[in-house]
Amino acid sequence: MPIKNRFAETHAEITAWRRHLHQHPELMFDLPETSRFVEEKLRSFGITDITTGIAQTGVVAVIEGQSNTSGRTIGLRADMDALPITEATGLPHASKTPGKMHACGHDGHTAMLLGAAQYLAETRNFDGRVVLIFQPAEEGGGGGNVMVQEGLMDRWGIDEVYGMHNMPGHPTGQFAIREGALLAAADEFAIMLTGQGGHAAAPHEAVDTNLAAAHVMIALQSIASRNTDPLKQVVVSVCTLRSDTDSHNVLPHQVLLRGTVRTLDSEVQDLAERRLHDLTRLTAEAHQCRAEIDYQRGYPVTRNHADQTRFAAEAADKVTPGTDRDTPPIMAGEDFSYMLNARPGAYIMIGNGEGATVHHPEYDFDDAAIPAGCSWFAQVVEDRLARA
Question: Chain-wide mean pLDDT for the chain?
Answer without folding.
Answer: 96
